[in-house]
């Protein structure tokens, strides 16, 4: 079974290794989805939504929100933001052992464009 939570954050960036209008400083309201995989426990849940949200906020969202992403991620494309978030959350939701595991990160840079990093691809 899968459990998915969604978030949004505002941040600025510029793509220094890209030649086009995105190499200039600009901002986005990003949307992010975090998907866990696991089996419901005795309470009927994979994990309490409040716990998931708290972990995602502490490990990733509070760092990214209202930031200049280039200070955090050298070339902050949607793809590289996915990788960064995955690395921050993978220890909190390990692939092995009891409890849920991190399955997928999706980052929308616009309402119609996103990047996805999934467990089998990481």
List the defining traits of the structure above.
122 residues; 23% helix; alpha+beta; single chain; 5 strands
Task: Summarize the SSE layout with pairings.
Layout (H helix, E strand, L loop, with lengths): L1 E12 L12 E12 L11 H16 L2 E2 L9 H12 L11 E10 L2 E6 L4
Low-confidence stretches: none
CATH superfamily: 6-pyruvoyl tetrahydropterin synthase/QueD
**What global shape is seen?**
elongated
Give me the secondary-structure category. Answer: alpha+beta
Distance between the termini: 20 Å
Provide the CATH architecture. 2-Layer Sandwich
Q: How many structural domains can be distinguished in the coordinates?
A: 1
Helical coverage, percent range: 10-25%
Q: What is the gyration radius calculated from CA atoms?
A: 15 Å
Adjacency order of strands in the biggest sheet: 3-1-2-4-5
- Count of DSSP strands: 5
Main pleated sheet = 5 strands, mixed
Give the class-level CATH name: Alpha Beta
Question: What's the CATH topology label?
Answer: Tetrahydropterin Synthase, Chain A
Mean of all residue-level pLDDT scores: 93
Number of helices: 2
